[in-house]
Amino acid sequence: MLLVLTSCSEKKTITPENNTINIQGKLSGYDQSQGLMTYDEYDLLKKTRKNKFDIDSTGYFNFDITIEKPIKATLDFGRVMIKGNGNNRYVYLFLNPGDSIYIESDMDIISDKDIIKKTLKLKGSGAVNSTFANKEDYTFNSYTQRRNNNYTFIVEKQAADYTKTIDSIKEAKLKYLKEYQKTHQLSEKLVEVYKDEYENLAIIRKFNYPSSHEGYTNGEIAVLPDNYYDFVKDFKISDHLEEKGLPYLRFLHFYITNKLNLEKAQGKDPEFLDFVDQELKGKAKYIYLAYSLGTDFKAEVYNQFGKNCPYTDLALIVADKYGHLEKMLPGKPSPLFNLLDINDKKITSTDLFSKSFTYIDLWATWCKPCIAEFPSLYKLKEEYKDKNIKFVSLSIDKNKQDWIEYVTEHNLEGIQLWVDPENKKIIDDGFNITMIPRFVLLDPQGKILNANAPKPSNDKDIRKIFDTILNEKN
């Protein structure tokens, strides 16, 4: 996506043509020289974009972007600390190709934390939709509301009451949108996007409630009524994923993953591709599979986009986006890199990944989900200690001393190694590491068996893989 910055000295209104959007504004009470625009385009598999734009000494900015479909965007003017609390200076936009918008606002939130809300003015063809985006946020996303929705309700309410509360919030948002439409000409795409968001957020919160309740209440298990998960049966996935954009696909991946886990909890064990085929048909299925490769690059999914793929446009996108990850496929050699132990002794990956299967844990001392895997990892190690599987923990902490102190203080046993930044890049590229915790399984020749192996906490899945490879070896 090409970002074209126009001269700040011109300060004249520009009328966009075709697929160009012009965004201008004048801020007061602002002392920074740049802002950040983050946006999602509602088009086939388009990724989230981030563009910096210049702001002159008078607070004026003016830039163009070129798009094919509508976008939902956030203009980020920085975070300010007020009495120990962080406050984001955001302006929200919803724009169609060819729109223009002019933004005026006071950014001095230290003098009044609601100053943006009180002074924001939007003009231009994109003003009606973008004004709704900001007013909707002011109405439903205050600090108190966020705390209630993301903590208080989870702690205080039992499952049935929590579900009713979440549904009432969704209905209040839908009513607000409907009433707003009576007096404002909102775009059809905006209405569709917000309806999707309201429905999807309610489902996310219901799925997360049991684990969140347990986490916030020191292990108190939520009592779920027999019909708690009926909301899963009522949800219908869109048949037109090519028009939904990344936020919907991100939600869909969450939904399918959690629904699959529900079936596994009920004693079923469907394969991923079979389960997706059960949930989606036609092009929608292939669009979802293409998206899923970005978070979990699986050989069986990647192979769906070979020469027999019925949708050549998707096959070309997958080849362009993920072709470089073929080096992660089973049978490919592990990348070559160097590591250091706690005594600064250099260990080569060639020496480390030989003679036995190797289960690699990529983690960091600051990563709470990584540390949460430790009890399950220790249990797994103990269970397979007499088998031909080597367990290796690789820290990607930037500061080696942080890792040394953590290993020492917590008496971490087994093979504990640290990755310097240069070798971390090799690992990131070789295994497509985008987040941690991440687990990789190699064979005794150092070749990849699974570049995104199940976590130790997914005990049934990882044990099934371990038992299979050990039996095949024997």
Q: What's the quick description here?
A:
With 474 residues, this protein is an alpha+beta fold. The protein is built from 17 helices and 16 strands.
Structure characterization notes:
- With 474 residues, the chain is an alpha+beta fold.
- The chain folds into four domains: 3-141, Carboxypeptidase-like, regulatory domain (Immunoglobulin-like, Sandwich); 145-235; 237-329, no CATH class; 338-473, Glutaredoxin (3-Layer(aba) Sandwich).
- The chain has 17 helices and 16 strands.
- A five-stranded mixed beta sheet has the order 1-5-2-8-9.
- Strand 3 (34-41) and strand 4 form a beta hairpin.
- The longest helix is centred in the middle third of the chain and has 29 residues, at 188-216.
**Mean pLDDT level:** 91
For the biggest β-sheet, the strand order reads 1-5-2-8-9
What radius of gyration results from the CA coordinates?
25 Å
User: In CATH, what is the homologous superfamily of the largest domain?
Assistant: Carboxypeptidase-like, regulatory domain
Class inferred from helices and paired strands: alpha+beta
Low-confidence stretches: 1-15
The CATH architecture classification of the largest domain is Sandwich
Total tally of structural domains: 4
DSSP summary: helix tally: 17
Helix content: 40-55%
As for the CATH topology of the largest domain, it is: Immunoglobulin-like
Please indicate the percent range of residues in DSSP E strands (runs of 2 or more).
15-25%
The CATH class of the largest domain, by name, is: Mainly Beta
Total strands: the figure is: 16
Beginning-to-end CA distance, first to last residue: 53 Å
Domain Thioredoxin: 328-471
Main location: other
Keywords: Cytochrome c-type biogenesis, Disulfide bond, Redox-active center
Protein name: TlpA family protein disulfide reductase
